[in-house]
Amino acid sequence: MTMTTVSGEQAEQVSSSWSVGVEAMTKVYPGGRRALDGVELAVKPGTFVVLLGPSGCGKTTLLRCIAGLERISAGRVLIGGDEVTHREPGDRGVAMVFQNYALYPTKTVLENIEYPLRMAKVPRQARRQRAREMTELLRLGPVMGSRPAQLSGGQRQRVGIGRALVREPDVLLMDEPLSNIDAELRGELRAEIRRLQRRSSTTTFYVTHDQAEALALADRLVVMRDGRIEQDGPPEQVYQEPATRFVASFLGGMNMLDLTGSQAVLPAQLRATLAEDRLGWLGVRPEDLRVVARPEEATGAELVLHGTVEGNELLGRERLMHFRTQGDQRARVRIHADQTVPAQITVVANSADLHLFDTAGRRLSGTLPLSSGSR
Ligand SMILES: Nc1ncnc2c1ncn2[C@@H]1O[C@H](COP(=O)(O)OP(=O)(O)OP(=O)(O)O)[C@@H](O)[C@H]1O
Fold it and tell me: What ipTM was assigned to the predicted interfaces of this complex?
């Protein structure tokens, strides 16, 4: 191992080139619930970070701790290179958008957006202009003079976003800002948030438990579980090379076949090259499996599963078929919605699309000789 000595000055440069630094952050709530457990993050300016994970994994807590709305039990928070661990929320250069953003009911859209600037004592002329620009940017021009009660849910949420952005914060924190908005508008607002963020280059943290939203928005995807970071990387990488069995199942619902009892399901070539005692799980995505009409057609395929169909879900153009393998394991395959399949099916996959995990659920990387270089 090579060691590099970093002088104090260099270390300073490294940390000040981050926009947000979270060091060994732990949060234990009164009563003993450990919501965060040693979280580490260093985020470059302008990055759109998505925090993804199941309910209760600590996403909101992490956001509130960065904002200073919760005191942390251990660790440090740095913003723009400065330690802000003990600073008040208002002195951290962060703005937060919540699920239900409270707007002033008696103020117009323009006045709502202008309000934070008024609080910050920005001169009247300048703050009017900035609020107007923000209103236009968010396509709220036509309703500028309306009051919140006259707006749709999506418009109200945009006013909330405008109010957070108008102060030009260094860091924008968003906690499931679109979860109360219907699907169609959500897609539109999602694109708008991304457009605004790119334009302003504001470092953004966005909490969601919606995997499609996470993949659509993230420059960097942080998957959390039980107060810890399970995987952190570009969304493509997290999707294509899930570091753990948990991430693989959570993001995209990968099938997981238990290999601890029998490894007969594995392609012989692969089985021969792996240390069998470490093998725990074989993962394959429903969209990487194909149904073959007759078992003979499976000859030469690298993974072959025979199973009994148990049910199906229509997804739109596609259908998710649930089946049970001969080894009595559950799996799903995606087919075209119009495709008909028999009750007894044979499904196949290429070895490039197989993911292996050890008995502890960690990815066995570099051990897929048949797929090297393809991922
Ligand atoms: N004020 C609090 N006091 C005690 N426990 C809390 C408090 N806030 C959150 N928790 C607990 O801490 C854990 C993490 O909660 P948090 O809200 O951060 O999760 P989350 O990932 O944002 O979940 P969700 O997606 O459901 O909002 C949960 O077990 C939760 O019950």
Answer: 0.97
